[in-house]
Specification:
The complex is a heterotrimer of chains A (472), B (254) and C (345). Chain A is an all-alpha fold and 472 residues long. Helix content of chain A is 75%, strand content 2%. Chain A has helices at residues 3-20, 24-43, 55-63, 69-113, 118-156, 158-172, 179-188, 190-196, 203-212, 222-233, 239-270, 292-327, 335-349, 354-362, 370-382, 399-408, 413-424, 430-440, 443-471, and strands at 44-46, 282-284, 329-330, 333-334. Chain A has a two-stranded antiparallel ribbon with strand order 3-4. In chain A, strand 3 and strand 4 (333-334) form a beta hairpin. In chain A, helix 7 (179-188) packs antiparallel against helix 8 (190-196), helix 10 (222-233) crosses helix 11 (239-270) and helix 15 (370-382) packs across helix 16. The mean pLDDT of chain A is 86. Chain B has 254 residues and is of the alpha/beta class. Chain B has helices spanning 8-14, 44-52, 96-107, 122-135, 146-151, 158-165, 180-191, 207-223, 230-239, 242-249, and strands spanning 20-24, 32-38, 69-75, 78-84, 112-118, 139-144, 154-156, 169-171. Chain B has a 7-stranded mixed β-sheet with strand order 1-3-4-2-5-6-8, sandwiched between helices. Chain C is built from 12 helices and 14 strands. Chain C has a 6-stranded antiparallel β-sheet. In chain C, a hairpin with a 2-residue loop joins strand 6 and strand 7. Chain C starts with 5 loop residues before the first helix and ends with a strand. Chains in contact: A-B, A-C, B-C. The interface between A and C is large, with 54 and 56 residues. Strand 2 of chain A pairs antiparallel with strand 13 (323-327) of chain C.
């Protein structure tokens, strides 16, 4: 190979390109399609006389119609979410009683019988094991229900129609219609939602979808919302209305999240991301009957197992940290107490408290352990006689008892509302952060996607707290 | 050239069912590399799964497989490593998927490239096929979703198609594993050099461009005799593709 | 800690937000103004003077100090200082009170113009910035890129001949393609022509042209031309412009016999039961978007019809080469079709 000849070839290509002008790409594509058309003319025969009744276009007429399109969509999404939340309750409590109520004492007594030192047994069993068990119990059942249902809809071909119907709403905020799907996927798990943004092939819209996915309330946060709404918001109104009001409060938070998603998408597309390339195309594939068992198998393996595995990997060290900060003493305060005291005034300014802020710091790996951590820390700080000991997360079966502990920790209705808001608006869990990094391959966007929601959360809770205190 | 695909039955006689072993993800010490390309939503992943015995997720949704999946099978004691490329409509643009797919076919130098097409949308799919035929000449066309085509009363003259494209064409319905043995047999024959393809080259290029392409391709062939895709490199140079220019400078194209 | 005043907390917060806004709001924020001020060094002023002189020369206008000071947004003293320096360095000279470019000055000016237009082309092809931002961004960039960087950029873009507005891009050696055509108001009624250039300055007029959805490369036929307005038909739609706006469009007249395609319409005007054939994609669709459309089969001669109407009005799904593909309205407006008389069965 001769470098001079190569340079000559490149120089020649520049010269020739200048001669043939700017239309080269168009011309080439047109010639390829012209060849394709010629080949097809020779080889393909379509028997139009037997044109079958087109089931596809019949279905499309209905699911994209003005009258039925949207009701069908909301019905399906509502049904999927309802089945997930309600359906997951039973296996979740089964797993909880197995892993937390039964396994945990057995492990503890087993460790005691072989004479494990208290710190090792606390670190491993109360810290690491408990955090992992908690994540599995809360996370596995909803994901194992949500993802297969979602995948079935996907394989059938319905989801592209949803993107088609909703695109103009998303276009207004500078996003892609397919973001409707990654957002819905985020209701199951933000990490899975971020992976799902691969279907968006326009760089700007994909980044928007990745960064705003965290505004979808995920499986790890639904239980927190429901619990706090039931204890505090349901209690404000007469008993007969309490369940409907707390339900509305939770839905309200989820809808607020969608509002933030649209708003932040719009702001991003107009500012930081306006220079990214933006294209739009949406292919509407033919409907294909999904193969039920195969789909369920692959979605369990592909989505549920992978996400769960990542969550466990991140939750284990979190459990260790939680146990350590409550059991390592500096002077006569544990690290946890010391941190809580120093965070308290900032927490108060936001209508929260130091316990909640610390819980959100140590629970970055998994939103599932926020409530158990808050309960444990509240007991630790207030010194009331409940719980399972320093660094041992717990939850109570009785909502009243949970409420009592929280009230003893100084919780008011404002704390509850702001906790619900902060649970919506805070950094993504570490699994999601890691996934964002893997998908964007950019430290800049990962940091931005992690910090931006917390700042929003601070601002929103701060404003709510001040207004609340002025009014009441 | 040797059009192996006359009828399914004839193929069966050639096919050595005992010689087939699906290797899943175990792809050590392979003898041949097979690339799997195709448009999105043509059942490419289903073909991949049928060949390897793996169960990669196959969504009814364009652009599902973004990461590159690998698997393998063994046929007649030869091991084949199968690489599932991202589904793309073309190789001419600059999106991440298209670059990944193109780079693998160009620099990965697979022994065989299987292009999976949707028999219902042949014309649209041929866009990608004709582009790949400019890059490599060891190609088999997997005419997938034949079951759907039959339901839509579309009939395809496989022999003429094979003659026009200059490569073997295997009709399949991967969902029902129909045609997969024939596909494996054909892959093996191309890999072993029993079938030699004479791939179609893009014809309907306007005169002024064709002249520029010829001039450039001649220069490239002078520098690299025996290069199979001088025309395609000429196309890319005229397009001003910096990656190809750099590869040319670094001598990676031979 | 519980007895602070929430009202003052709120006040502090709002003062903070207002300050942030004053400093960092786009374009007019103090931060940006200060930054711009510090960057207006001598080099920038010299290059801007050269560029202005070149534009005056290109449009065969003469320019004296007074006009120059008016068109440039710098302090008079700095301009005078720059002019002095340029005269000493033989970039410009005076013929009585008219400023002229020397050979070296013209070369320099062409280099600046080359960077500006290349950068606009780059923004159009490879980024997602909106058209209204191209000019200002190129104005900044033209002072930044070195000679080698410019050539690398040109090579990456495939050494294009024209910028996205239709202005010719000078080559390394200063060669430039010609823009054919005259200002639209100079064309008599019934002339058929093609838009070859859309001027992007002043910004107010350019924004009006953009708002009308006028596309570069479109064929048009002048219907009415008088001192109050100019009306023309293009791609199945009628456009009415004030003469001052129309003057920013350059149109190359085409002999009627040469016109092959008539009745061209935009895909966005296709109705549910109509069939059409694609004539081509407008030059207004660029970069990645254009390539995607071509890859998806939106090529000359392809048959197209509407497959699904959207309940919210956009995007519609179009049936092309056996597949249903949804396009937004602004994309469909850039695909040119000829409706056929057969109807969808």
């Amino acid at each position: 190979m001769n470098q001079k000849n190569i340079d000559y070839i490149i120089e020649l290509s520049n010269e020739l390109r200048w001669q043939i002008g700017d239309d080269f790409h168009d011309n080439l594509t047109e010639s390829i399609y012209a060849d394709a058309a010629n080949i097809v003319k020779d080889t393909v025969q379509v028997d139009n006389s037997k044109k079958r009744f087109r089931l596809d276009s019949k279905i499309d007429k209905i699911v994209t119609s003005k009258t039925f399109g949207f009701p069908i969509m909301f019905l399906i999404l509502g049904l999927v979410l309802w089945l997930t939340i309600v359906g997951a309750n039973y296996p979740s409590s089964l797993l909880a009683s197995l892993l937390l109520d039964n396994m945990h004492p057995i492990l503890k007594s087993g460790a005691a019988s072989i004479g494990t030192p208290w710190w090792l047994d606390g670190f491993l069993i109360d810290g690491v094991y408990l955090a992992v068990a908690w994540v599995i119990a809360v996370m596995l059942p909803p994901m194992a229900i949500f993802f297969p249902m979602f995948t079935l809809l996907e394989d059938f071909g319905y989801l592209p129609r949803v993107a088609f119907n909703l695109d103009s709403l998303f276009k207004k905020s500078g996003a892609h219609g397919k973001q409707a799907l990654t957002m819905s996927m985020g209701f199951g798990c933000n990490a899975a939602g971020v992976v799902a943004t691969r279907i968006i092939d326009s760089p700007r819209e994909r980044l928007i979808a990745i960064i705003t996915n965290n505004f979808s309330l995920c499986n790890g946060r639904w239980p927190t919302q429901i619990l706090i709404a039931t204890i505090f918001i349901g209690a404000v109104v007469p008993g007969s209305y309490s369940s409907i009001v707390s339900l509305l409060a939770v839905i309200g938070v989820a809808v607020l999240g969608m509002g933030f998603m649209f708003g932040v998408s719009w702001a991003l597309s107009k500012t930081l991301l306006k220079g990214e390339v933006s294209t739009f195309n949406l292919e509407l594939p033919p409907y294909r009957p999904p193969r039920f068992w195969k789909t369920i198998y692959t979605s369990l393996i592909d989505r549920t197992a992978i996400v769960l595995w990542r969550a466990i990997v991140f939750a284990a060290p979190a459990g260790a940290v939680i146990w350590l900060i409550s059991n390592i003493y500096v002077g006569n305060e544990s690290i946890a107490e010391w941190t809580i005291n120093s965070l308290d005034s900032f927490g108060f300014l936001l209508g929260l408290n130091g316990v909640i802020l610390l819980a959100y710091i140590v629970a970055i790996p998994a939103n599932e352990i926020v409530i158990p951590t808050i309960l444990m820390l509240t007991v630790l700080v207030t010194g009331i006689d409940s719980g399972a000991g320093a660094g041992v997360m717990f939850e109570l079966d009785s909502m009243n008892a949970t409420g009592d502990i929280l009230r003893a920790g100084g919780w008011t209705l404002l704390t509850a509302i702001n906790l619900m808001l902060f649970s919506l608006l805070h950094n993504p869990c570490s699994t999601t952060i890691y996934t964002i990094y893997k998908e964007t391959k950019s430290t800049k966007w990962t940091v931005f996607a992690s910090i931006m929601p917390v700042i929003l959360g601070f601002i929103v809770t701060f404003l709510v707290a001040q207004v609340w205190r002025i009014i009441f | 050239m040797n059009t192996k695909v006359k009828s399914a039955c004839e193929m069966c006689a050639h096919f050595n069912a005992d010689g087939l072993k699906k290797l899943g993800i175990h792809t050590d010490n392979f003898d041949f590399v097979v690339a799997l390309a195709g448009n999105p939503n043509t059942g490419k992943s289903t073909v991949f799964n049928a060949l390897t015995g793996l169960r990669q997720h196959t969504g009814n949704w364009p652009g599902k497989t973004v990461t590159r999946a690998e698997g393998g099978f063994e046929y007649n004691t030869q091991k084949f490593k199968l690489v599932d490329l991202p589904g793309t409509y073309s190789l001419l643009s600059t999106s991440e998927d298209e670059e990944a797919a193109r780079d693998f076919i160009l620099f990965g130098k697979p022994n065989v490239t299987v292009i999976v097409v949707d028999a219902n949308r042949l014309e649209r799919n041929l866009n990608l096929v004709l582009q790949i035929l400019e890059i490599t000449d060891r190609v088999v066309l997997c005419l997938n979703l034949m079951d759907e085509a039959k339901r839509n009363h579309i009939s395809i003259d496989v022999r003429t198609l094979s003659r026009d494209l200059g490569i073997p064409v295997v009709p399949t319905s991967a969902r029902f594993s129909e045609g997969i043995p024939e596909l494996i047999q054909t892959i093996s024959e191309i890999a072993n050099g029993n079938i030699v393809c004479k791939p179609h080259k893009i014809k309907s290029v306007p005169n002024n461009i064709e002249k520029a392409v010829k001039t450039l391709a001649n220069e490239i062939e002078k520098e690299f005799p025996n290069i199979p895709n001088s025309r395609w490199i000429a196309f890319r140079l005229l397009e001003g593709d910096t990656q190809i220019i750099n590869a040319l400078k670094a001598g990676q194209l031979v | 800690m519980n007895n602070y005043n929430p009202i003052s907390a709120l006040l502090i917060f709002f003062v903070f937000v207002v300050l942030l806004f004053i400093f960092f709001r786009p374009v007019k924020g103090w931060f940006w103004i200060l930054r711009k001020h510090f960057k207006n060094n001598e080099k920038t002023i010299i290059e801007d003077v050269l560029k202005q002189l070149y534009h005056f020369e290109y449009s065969s206008n003469k320019v004296d100090m007074k006009t120059l000071v008016q068109v440039l947004d710098y302090k008079n003293a700095s301009i005078v200082e720059a002019i002095n320096k340029m005269t000493i360095n033989n970039l410009i000279y005076f013929e009585s009170d008219i400023l002229k470019l020397s050979e070296a000055g013209r070369d320099y000016a062409l280099r600046i113009v080359r960077v500006h237009r290349l950068w606009e082309r780059y923004l159009a092809e490879k980024t997602g910035f909106s058209k209204t931002e191209w000019h200002d961004r190129a104005e900044m960039m033209e002072h930044k890129l070195s000679h080698d960087e410019t050539n690398t950029l040109a090579a990456r873009l495939g050494n294009p001949k024209f910028d996205p507005h239709g202005d010719p891009i000078p080559t390394k050696t200063g060669k430039m393609a010609d823009v054919i055509g005259v200002e639209l108001p100079l064309l008599p009624i019934n002339t058929i022509g093609r838009i070859t250039h859309i001027e992007d300055e002043p910004e107010i007029i350019y924004k009006q042209i953009l708002a009308e959805n006028i596309h570069i490369g479109s064929l048009l036929r002048v219907v009415e031309n008088n001192s109050t307005r100019i009306v023309f038909q293009s791609e199945g739609e009628e456009f009415k412009l004030a003469p001052i706006v129309a003057a920013n469009l350059t149109v190359a007249a085409i002999e009627k016999e040469v016109v092959i395609e008539d009745n061209i319409a935009r895909l966005s005007s296709l109705n549910e039961n109509e069939m059409a054939r694609i004539i081509g994609i407008s030059k207004e669709s660029r970069g990645e978007s254009r390539r995607r459309l071509l890859d998806l089969g939106f090529v000359k001669g392809a048959k197209i019809s509407i497959d699904m109407m959207n309940p919210l009005g956009e995007p519609h799904a179009y049936l092309i080469k056996g597949t249903s593909i949804a396009l937004r309205k602004d994309q469909a407006a850039k695909i040119l079709i000829k409706k056929s008389y057969e109807y969808k069965s």
